[in-house]
Structures are given as C-alpha cells and as structure tokens.
Write a structure and sequence with these properties.
The protein is α+β, with helices and mostly antiparallel strands. Helix content is 37%, strand content 17%.
C-alpha cells in the first residue's frame, strides 16, 4: 500500500517538474509615473486613464514593462539502448541488487489475536493482601 502511494506521488512530482520546466509565460507591468498601476500574467496589463490623455498631448509619463520567462524548448528523449555498455551494466546491476530491499515481508500469523482474557471476579492481590512496596 505504501509502495503504491510513494510510486504515484513520485510519478506526479516528476510530471509536474516536466510541466513547469517547459511552460513559458509573460509578466506585464504598467507604471504611471513611479506608481505601479497593474500587473498581469498571461494577459495584457490594463492601461491607466492618463495614457489616453497623453496621446493627445504627445507627452508620456507612463511606462510599460514586459518580462518574458522562457521555459525549456527541447526535451531530450533517450532510451536504454542509447547508453554506453558500462552505463547499461551499472544500471542493471544496481536495479537487480537493490530491488530486493523494497519487497514486502510476509504477513505473520498471530494465533492469539482474537483471544479475550477471562473476566476477573475479584482482585486476587487484595484478597490475599499481597502488595508490592
């Protein structure tokens, strides 16, 4: 059970690692003077109302920054046959040797698992007046 949970969680972690390493996105920031007006990810940042008036006056105090975060473009797919013989030999001996450590142990039979002790009618130590000091 634990082995299956670890296997699935590790697989999900690797899938998310590949996904986030290949995703590209842009962060757009719009400043009006020195004040940050809007920040957006994946979409265009909203312009401030002052920018429309500045187009008429030909004077700009607004600034627009675009930060592009590029992900990995190419992934290398390789197979076991692409490895050198010494690497293949090491990999096979490593998996064969350490594969036995993760096998589950056989379940032990407990013969007295369902045994319930008898009901006590009287406390024998009190009746015999034997006390441990």
């Amino acid at each position: 059970m634990i082995k299956l949970i670890l296997y699935k969680s590790f697989s999900m972690l690797l899938a998310l690692l590949v996904l986030f390493s290949t995703v590209s996105f842009t962060v757009e920031k719009h400043y009006c003077g020195d004040i940050l007006v809007d920040v957006s990810v994946f979409t265009d940042a909203e312009k401030c109302p002052m920018e429309h008036l500045e187009i008429l006056q030909k004077k700009t105090c607004c600034k627009h920054e675009i930060d592009v975060v590029l992900g990995q473009n190419e992934l290398k797919f390789s197979s076991f046959e692409d490895l050198v013989f010494s690497q293949q030999f090491f990999f096979t001996t490593f998996t064969y040797t350490f594969g036995d450590f993760f096998k589950s142990l056989p379940k032990k039979i407990i013969p007295h698992k369902d045994y319930s002790p008898p009901n006590l009618i009287a406390d024998i130590q009190v009746l015999d007046q034997v006390f441990i000091i």
